[in-house]
Design brief:
CATH topology of the largest domain in chain A: Rossmann fold
Keywords (chain A): 4Fe-4S, Electron transport, Iron, Iron-sulfur, Metal-binding, Repeat, Transport
Pfam family, one (chain B): CCG
Largest sheet of chain B: 4 strands, parallel
Number of domains of chain A: 2
Number of domains of chain B: 2
Distance between the termini of chain B: 17 Å
Number of strands of chain A: 10
GO molecular function, one term (chain B): oxidoreductase activity
CATH class of the largest domain in chain A: Alpha Beta
Strand content of chain A: 5-15%
Shape of chain B: globular
Structural class of chain B: alpha/beta
Helix content of chain B: 40-55%
Protein name (chain A): L-lactate dehydrogenase complex protein LldF
Low-confidence stretches of chain A: 1-17
Radius of gyration of chain A: 27 Å
Oligomer: heterodimer
Number of helices of chain B: 15
Distance between the termini of chain A: 87 Å
Protein name (chain B): L-lactate dehydrogenase complex protein LldE
C-alpha cells in the first residue's frame, strides 16, 4: 500500500513540505472574475439555474424541517467524518483487506494520470473490440471520474464511455460540461434538451419538450447499452471499512443497471469516502438525500461486496484515488473540506453560483465547495485556482446548509490568506496598495483621526453630493452603484467637539 | 451603565449620524457613553482579503483602545463588525502566533454587543415606542444582513424592535435572507456578480413599495443605498450585464406628497407597460411579476439606529445614509 492519507504534524507554512497536488480536470485558465463575466450575460442560463435552485432550496428546507434532530444529525455526520480523516491510514488498510477478501481487486492511484491508466488497462482487458474498431463501457454518474477526466482520456484510447445518468447523458450528448455536481444539466431547459436528443439520438424521432417523453427516449436509447456492454465504470458514495463494501445512492435506477448487468465493474473512489461500518449509514442516508434532492430517501440505494459466482459482475475492481486529497488533508485549516459528501446543498443556496452557474468555477467541483476543494487539492498557485476563494461574499448560507458542517466561509478566508502569502504578482494591485495603506492608518486611532480631518475638504470638493463615477478600482464600485455624499465631519470629530463643548459648559457652571 | 461605543470605520468616516443615533438611544435610557479614542476598525476588511499580517496591528489597535478605557459593556451599530470581533480577531491573532492578543480580543468581543442585542438581551427593551419614544410614520422594509442573521443569530431582535416603533408601516422584504452582494472587497474583486446580486435585492425592495429600506449594518446599507441611488437616478445599473430591466421614470417631488420625503423622486413604471419591457440590453427580469406597478417610491437605505432614535419631537428626515442630517446633537 502506498503512503496515503497521513496527516502531517502541525507545521508552519514556511517549512511545510510540498505535497503533490491533484490534477483537477481544470477546464479554464482564467480567473473566476473573467470567466464569470461571460456567464453572467447568459440570461437563459441564469433563468434556468435560478428556477432550479430555488425549487430545490424550498424542497430541502421542507424535508429538513421535518426532523427535529437535524442539528444532531449534522453534528454526528461531522464527527464521523472527522474520525475517519484522523484515522484514514488504518481505515484504508482495513477496507483493502476486506474488499480483497470478498473477491475484489484494489488499485491505488496517486493522481488522475495513474487512475486513468488503470481504468484504461482494465477496460482493454475486459471490453471487446466492436465492429467499429472501438471498445465501449457504460458509466454510472461519478464525480471522481469527472475529476480525473476519464471519459476524455478513454476516448483518446479508443474506448467510448456512455453516461447512463439522464442529466449526465444530456451533458455528454451536448458536448458540454456538467455545471452542478448533482444536476449536471441544471443549466439546460427542456427545449434545449429536446433539440440535443433529436440531433444526437439516431432513433429518437420527433420529440416534444415533455419531460416524460424525453425520459422515455433516453430510456430506449440506454436499455440496449445496459444489455450488451461488458464493462461498467462507477463512482461510489461510500466505502464501508469493516465489510469492504461499496455503495451508490441514486434516483433513476440506471446506476443499479450498471452495477449489476455487466461482467466487469470498475469503481473509482476518492480515499476520503470511507465510513467505519454499516451502522454509520444511519446518519448519512438521512443527511444526503435530504440535502441533495430534498427527498426523505433516494429511490435507489445499492451496496455490493466483492463478487458472487453467477450473480452480478464477476470482475470487481476499485481504484482508490488520492489526486490531491492527501494534500488537502495536510492542511489543518482546510482539511474538513474532505468531509464533503457531494450533496450540492451549498451550490443551491449560493448567491454567486446562482448568478454565474457552475462553468464559471472552471473545474469539476463548482460552487462554494468547489471554491475550497479545488485550491485545497490542486494548490492556490495556479491563477484559476487562486481566484476561487474570492468568488464569495462570505454570506454564510453554505455553512448553514452543509449536512456535515463544513465551515466553508472560514476555509475561504484561510485560502485567501494562502493566496495572499503566495504573492502572485510582484507588483501590488491597486486594491493591495489600498489595503496596505488602510492597515497603516488603522493601526493607530490618531492616524485615522488625521486621515478623517480631510473630510471637510473632500466634502467641499464633491460639493456635498453623491459620487457617481471614480477611476481605478473604485470604478468597479461606481460602475453600478453611487457612493453616498461624504459627511463634513467624522463621528470622531463630532464627538471630540461635543466633549469640548460639554467641558466648557461644566467650567462655566 | 457605562457603555463603550465602537463606531466602526464605515460609520465613523461615512455615516457619523448612525453613531450619533446610537448614542442618542442609549442616553435616552440613562446610560453613560464613552468613546475609546484609539479605536479604528475591526480588521474585517483585511482579514477577509486574506491579509492576516496587515490585520494584526488593526486588531491590536482595537484591543488597546478598549483595554485603555473603563466600561461595562461595549456596543457597535454593526452586526458584521461585532461578528468579526468574536469570530475572526482571535483566530487571526492565533494564526499570527500572538496568543496574548487572541485572549485579549476574545475577552473584549465577549462583552461587545450589536445594538439590537444590547437593547433586547442586556437592557430588556421590547417596545421601542414606549421605551425609546421611537416614532417613524413611514413604510419601511428590512434587510437582515448575512452576518447578523448567520453569525450573530440575531433572529427577530431587529425586526421586532422596528415593528414596535410608533407609526411605522412595516412590510416584509421578499427573499430577505439573500445577500445584497456587498461582501467588502468582494464588490471590488467580483464587481459584476456583486452588481447582479444587488440588482435583485433592489428589485425586491422596490416590490414592497417601502420608502425606506433599513437594516443593522452600515456596510450593507452603503451597498444598497448606492444601488437605490443609481437605480433611481438613471433607471438602470449602467455597465452591469443584464441586471435590470425595470425602468424608473423621474417625476416631480410633489407626487410624493409628504414633507418628510420631499426629496424622493421616482415612480416605478406605473401606467406604461414599456417600463417593464425586458430586453433592452438583450435581457429580461428573472421574475417581473414580483415588481408591483403603480406605487410611489423614493427609496432610501437608512440604518435602524436612526429609525429607533427618531421621535415626534425630532423626526428623522428620510434621506439616504451619507447625506447630511439636520439636528443630531449628541446631548
Amino acid at each position: 500500500m502506498t503512503f496515503l492519507g497521513m496527516p502531517l504534524l502541525p507545521s508552519t507554512r514556511r517549512d511545510r513540505p510540498t505535497i503533490p497536488g491533484g490534477q483537477g480536470n481544470i477546464v479554464e485558465d482564467e480567473s473566476f472574475a473573467e470567466v464569470s463575466h461571460q456567464h453572467l450575460s447568459n440570461q437563459q442560463l441564469r433563468n434556468n439555474i435560478g428556477h432550479a435552485t430555488s425549487t430545490i432550496r424550498e424542497k430541502r428546507a421542507d424535508v429538513v424541517a421535518e426532523l427535529d434532530d437535524w442539528e444532531e444529525l449534522r453534528e454526528a455526520g461531522s464527527r464521523a467524518k472527522n474520525h475517519v480523516m484522523e484515522n484514514l491510514p488504518e481505515y484504508l488498510a482495513e477496507f483493502e483487506a476486506n474488499f480483497t477478501a470478498a473477491g475484489g481487486v484494489i488499485h491505488w492511484a496517486r493522481d488522475a494520470d495513474e487512475a486513468n491508466a488503470i481504468v484504461t488497462e482494465l477496460a482493454e482487458a475486459n471490453a471487446p473490440v466492436l465492429d467499429s474498431g472501438r471498445r465501449e463501457v457504460i458509466k454510472v454518474k461519478s464525480m471522481a471520474t469527472q475529476e480525473i477526466g476519464l471519459n476524455e482520456h478513454l476516448e483518446t484510447q479508443g474506448i467510448d464511455a456512455f453516461e447512463t445518468d439522464l442529466a449526465e447523458l444530456i451533458v455528454q450528448l451536448g458536448d458540454d460540461k456538467p455545471s452542478h455536481i448533482l444536476v449536471p444539466a441544471i443549466h439546460r431547459n427542456r427545449d434545449e434538451i429536446r433539440d440535443i436528443f433529436e440531433e444526437k439520438m439516431p432513433d429518437a424521432g420527433d420529440l416534444t419538450n415533455d419531460p416524460t417523453e424525453l425520459a422515455e427516449a433516453a430510456r430506449r436509447h440506454l436499455r440496449h447499452k445496459f444489455l450488451t456492454t461488458k464493462v461498467a465504470v462507477s463512482g461510489a458514495n461510500f466505502g464501508i471499512a469493516d465489510t469492504g463494501s461499496l455503495g451508490v445512492v441514486e434516483s433513476e435506477g440506471n446506476g443499479r443497471m450498471c452495477l449489476t448487468l455487466p461482467e466487469t465493474l470498475i469503481t473509482v473512489m476518492g480515499i476520503e469516502k470511507l465510513l467505519p461500518s454499516f451502522d454509520d449509514l444511519e446518519v448519512f442516508l438521512q443527511l444526503l438525500p435530504r440535502s441533495s434532492t430534498g427527498e426523505r430517501m433516494n429511490p435507489y440505494t445499492s451496496f455490493w461486496t466483492g463478487s458472487t459466482p453467477g450473480d452480478g459482475p464477476q470482475n470487481v475492481h476499485l481504484v482508490l484515488l488520492d489526486n490531491g486529497r492527501t494534500r488537502a488533508l495536510a492542511d489543518e485549516h482546510g482539511r474538513t473540506a474532505l468531509n464533503c459528501i457531494r450533496c450540492s446543498a451549498c451550490m443551491n443556496v449560493c448567491p454567486v453560483y446562482e448568478r454565474t452557474g457552475g462553468h464559471a468555477y472552471g473545474s469539476t467541483y463548482p460552487g462554494p465547495i468547489g471554491a475550497i476543494l479545488s485550491p485545497l487539492m490542486t494548490g492556490v498557485e495556479a491563477e484559476e485556482n487562486g481566484s476561487l476563494p474570492y468568488a464569495s461574499s462570505l454570506c454564510g448560507a453554505c455553512y448553514d446548509v452543509c449536512p456535515v458542517k463544513i465551515d466553508i466561509p472560514s476555509i475561504l478566508v484561510h485560502l485567501r490568506n494562502e493566496d495572499a502569502e503566495a504573492n502572485h504578482s510582484p507588483v501590488s494591485s491597486q486594491l493591495d496598495t489600498a489595503l496596505t495603506g488602510a492597515s497603516w492608518m488603522m493601526s493607530e486611532g490618531k492616524r485615522m483621526a488625521t486621515a478623517e480631518s480631510g473630510l471637510p475638504i473632500a466634502h467641499a470638493v464633491t460639493g456635498g453630493e453623491q459620487i457617481n463615477s471614480l477611476p481605478g478600482i473604485a470604478g468597479a464600485w461606481t460602475s453600478s452603484r453611487d457612493i453616498p455624499a461624504l459627511p463634513e465631519k467624522s463621528f470622531r470629530q463630532l464627538w471630540a467637539e461635543d466633549e469640548a463643548r460639554a467641558e466648557e459648559e461644566d467650567d462655566e457652571s | 451603565m457605562k457603555i463603550a461605543l465602537f463606531a466602526t470605520c464605515i460609520v465613523d468616516a461615512m455615516y457619523p449620524e448612525v453613531a450619533q443615533a446610537t448614542v442618542t438611544i442609549l442616553r435616552r435610557l440613562g446610560h453613560e457613553i464613552v468613546f475609546p479614542s484609539g479605536q479604528t476598525c475591526c480588521g474585517q476588511m483585511h482579514i477577509n482579503s486574506g491579509k492576516f499580517a496587515q490585520a494584526e496591528p488593526v486588531i491590536a489597535a482595537h484591543a488597546r483602545a478598549f483595554s485603555d478605557t473603563d466600561w461595562d459593556v461595549a456596543v457597535a451599530p454593526a452586526a458584521s463588525c461585532v461578528a468579526s470581533l468574536g469570530h475572526q480577531q482571535p483566530m487571526v491573532a492565533r494564526r499570527m502566533g500572538n496568543d496574548a492578543l487572541a485572549a485579549e480580543a476574545a475577552d473584549i468581543a465577549g462583552q461587545t454587543y450589536e445594538l439590537s442585542q444590547l437593547l433586547t438581551d442586556v437592557l430588556g427593551i421590547t417596545d421601542a415606542a414606549a421605551d425609546l419614544g421611537s416614532y417613524f410614520p413611514h413604510r419601511v422594509t428590512y434587510h437582515p444582513s448575512c452576518h447578523g442573521m448567520r453569525l450573530l443569530r440575531l433572529g427577530d431582535r431587529q425586526s421586532d424592535l422596528l415593528r414596535s416603533v410608533e407609526g411605522i408601516d412595516y412590510v416584509d422584504l421578499p427573499l430577505a435572507d439573500a445577500c445584497c452582494g456587498f461582501g467588502g472587497t468582494f464588490s471590488v474583486k467580483n464587481p459584476e456578480v456583486s452588481s447582479a446580486m444587488l440588482a435583485d435585492k433592489i428589485r425586491t425592495v422596490h416590490s414592497t413599495g417601502a420608502e425606506v429600506c433599513t437594516g443593522g449594518d452600515a456596510s450593507c446599507l452603503l451597498h444598497m443605498g448606492g444601488g437605490l441611488s443609481r437605480f433611481q437616478r438613471t433607471g438602470s445599473f449602467e455597465g452591469t450585464p443584464d441586471v435590470t430591466a425595470v425602468h424608473v421614470r423621474q417625476t416631480s417631488s410633489t407626487d410624493v406628497g409628504d414633507d418628510n420625503v420631499d426629496h424622493l423622486t421616482a415612480v416605478v413604471g406605473a401606467d406604461d407597460d414599456d417600463h417593464l419591457t425586458p430586453g433592452e440590453k438583450g435581457t429580461s427580469p428573472a421574475e417581473p411579476s414580483r415588481i408591483q406597478s403603480g406605487f410611489r417610491v423614493g427609496q432610501s437605505a437608512v440604518h435602524l439606529a436612526r429609525i429607533l432614535a427618531s421621535t415626534k419631537e425630532d423626526p428623522l428626515r428620510v434621506q439616504s445614509e451619507g447625506a447630511t442630517v439636520s439636528g443630531g446633537s449628541l446631548r
